[in-house]
Each structure stands twice: as structure tokens, then as C-alpha cells.
Design brief:
Strand content: 5-15%
Order of helices and strands: HHHEEHHEHEHHHHHEHEE
CATH class of the largest domain: Alpha Beta
CATH superfamily of the largest domain: P-loop containing nucleotide triphosphate hydrolases
Strand order of the largest sheet: 4-5-3-7-6
Number of domains: 3
Oligomer: single chain
CATH architecture of the largest domain: 3-Layer(aba) Sandwich
Mean pLDDT: 76
Radius of gyration: 22 Å
Helix content: 40-55%
Largest sheet: 5 strands, mixed
Low-confidence stretches: 309-316
Number of strands: 7
Distance between the termini: 31 Å
Structural class: alpha/beta
Shape: globular
Length: 322
């Protein structure tokens, strides 16, 4: 049997999304198809037939392009300006790839085509050979499956990811300190000293390393460690620990099976894949924690490889060069 790889996982996620949009995710026959492909990824003919059928079944449910601001055609995409639309006076509006190098910020009231603009940029840069990663807060990126051939969409609870695992170019302590600061910022935990999340990560990972030097503490490991930590009853430390348990419990419940991963998908894999991760079901603090953690890890990866800083953040959309 062929070894199951991240590429197989992306392909299966793409088909699963189409099955969901066709309203057949609870159909036992399609559950069996997905199950067969999950254990026998070499069945490429079955996958191709299933995907072709799902295109027709899910056509009405999939997000359609805005008829007033259509996505760019392949022949419109080149290394020059990216067409975005027209002004009220019908003057063309475009965005140069050089402008993306410096980063852009898209803002506007509801209905001012922010999402359509992001999709247009994503499709154009993907066709230029770059890769995108979209932390999707409103299921806005699903329609890219139609436009970008290798685009795959995951729900956060299906994505193999461990926020506490350092990147291959990070030393452990540096990443623990970085993720602790991101955690405190998003969850409002600003305690210091030996009871900080940083110290907890150092201590729990020391125990994990005694068991296996290649593993890292996952969110469930950290939750169990905090629960077992002895603190004086009715003290400030006890109140802090209770809040910590509540927040870590929220992360573990939201991540589902992903909360058990000691090792997740490597950053290098995510940088060279077109991915959308759905985080729309979760609280604002958890969405912020995930988005900031992912973005920080990708930046640090590029810095560790000493590559040019060509990561661009467009609201929830990030693009990566090959």
C-alpha cells in the first residue's frame, strides 16, 4: 500500500469539501468512498471519477464569482499589473506585483468588495506560480477550488497542526517564548514569572523529551500539565490556573483530533501548498491565536532559511513564492 503523504491529504481534503458542498457528506456511500481513498490513496482513478461527479453535484452550492467583478482569465495573468476592476468613471484599476512586495492593507465597509479583491489577487498570484495560505474566517476561500487546480480546503479541526511545535529553523526556547506572547495577547493572559505559559511549556516539554526526544507537547499535554500543577488554594496562582485550564480547554475542544498531534505539518510543506484553513466556527481569540501563530511561524521559517522576506499578508490571505 502506498504511504499516505501530505499531498494525498490535500487531495482528499479537496474532494471532501466538494462532497460537503453537494450535501452528501452524511451519505453512507460517499463516506465509504472517502474512507477507501483515505487508506488507499493510490486509487487515482476512483478519485478522478469521484471528483468529476462532485463537480456537477456541487455546482449550485459552490460560491460563484461576482458577475460585476469577475475573476481574471488565465490569459490576463502575467508578471505585470493584476486587474482588480473599474472605477465609477470606468477607469481600470490594477495592482502591480511590486506593490505586493511591500504589503497591502484592504479595508472598507460591508459590500465594498474586499473579499472579491482578495480572491482576485489570490487567483492571479497562484497562476503566477506562487503559493497562498488563507486563514479563512468566513468560508470565503472555498470557491478557489474551482480556480486554482491544487487548492485544498481544511476545517481547523481536520488540520494536522501543533502550535507548540517549533519550526525546523527555531530553537525550542525561542519558539516557546514567541508562542507564549502570542497566546497571552489573544487570550488576555499577562501573568509573569514561574507561572507563565512560557515556563509551563518549558517544563512540560522537558517531560515529553524524556519519553521521546522527537516529540513536542500538544495542547492536550499542556492542559493535563496545568491541571496537575499544585498551587495554594484560593491564591492568585489558583485563579490564574483556573483561567488557564478554561482557555486551554477551549483550544483543545475547538481543534478536535488535531489537539493530539505532537508533530504537525511542517512549515516548509505549507509554504509550497495552496491551502485554505476554515476558522470561521471559532471564537475571535482562538482565530487570532491561530492566525498569528501561523504567520509568525512562516516569517521565522523564511528568516531561518535566510531567504528574502517575500511573504505578504492581505487581511487573512498570505502568499508564498516558490
Amino acid at each position: 500500500m502506498q504511504k499516505f503523504t501530505f499531498e494525498n491529504e490535500l487531495r482528499l481534503a479537496r474532494l471532501r469539501t466538494l462532497v460537503e458542498k453537494a450535501g452528501l457528506i452524511d451519505d453512507s456511500r460517499w463516506q465509504n468512498v472517502l474512507r477507501v481513498l483515505s487508506v488507499c490513496p493510490e486509487e487515482s482513478e476512483l478519485y478522478e471519477d469521484a471528483e468529476e461527479y462532485m463537480w456537477y453535484r456541487s455546482a449550485e452550492q459552490r460560491a460563484l464569482p461576482d458577475p460585476f467583478f469577475p475573476h481574471p482569465r488565465p490569459d490576463q495573468v502575467n508578471w505585470g499589473p493584476i486587474p482588480l476592476g473599474f472605477t465609477e468613471e470606468m477607469h481600470p484599476v490594477s495592482l502591480s506585483t511590486k506593490q505586493l512586495n511591500g504589503g497591502i492593507f484592504i479595508a472598507g465597509a460591508p459590500g465594498t468588495i474586499k473579499t472579491t479583491t482578495m480572491r482576485t489577487i489570490a487567483i492571479s498570484i497562484a497562476r503566477l506560480g506562487k503559493k497562498i495560505f488563507w486563514d479563512d474566517q468566513k468560508e470565503d476561500s472555498i470557491c478557489l477550488i474551482r480556480e486554482i487546480p491544487d487548492f485544498a480546503y481544511f476545517e481547523l479541526s481536520e488540520f494536522p497542526w501543533n502550535p507548540f511545535e517549533p519550526d525546523e529553523y527555531d530553537d525550542d526556547s525561542s519558539w516557546y517564548l514567541n508562542i507564549a506572547n502570542i497566546y497571552r495577547k489573544n487570550f488576555g493572559m499577562f501573568q509573569a514569572g514561574e507561572h507563565s505559559i512560557f515556563q509551563d511549556l518549558v517544563d512540560v516539554n522537558r517531560k515529553i523529551k524524556e519519553r521521546s526526544k522527537d516529540d513536542y507537547a500538544c495542547p492536550l499535554d499542556l492542559l493535563d500539565y496545568v491541571k496537575e500543577k499544585s498551587v495554594p488554594r484560593n491564591s492568585e496562582f489558583a485563579r490564574y490556573r483556573d483561567r488557564e485550564i478554561l482557555r486551554l480547554g477551549t483550544i483543545c475542544e475547538s481543534y478536535g483530533p488535531a489537539a493530539r498531534y505532537s508533530r504537525g505539518v511542517k512549515t516548509s510543506k505549507k509554504l509550497f501548498s495552496n491551502l485554505g484553513v476554515g476558522i470561521h466556527k471559532y471564537s475571535p481569540d482562538l482565530r487570532g491565536f491561530h492566525a498569528d501563530s501561523e504567520f509568525s511561524k512562516m516569517i521565522r521559517h523564511r528568516m531561518g532559511k535566510r531567504e528574502n522576506m517575500t511573504i505578504w499578508r492581505i487581511s487573512s490571505l498570505w502568499t508564498m513564492p516558490r
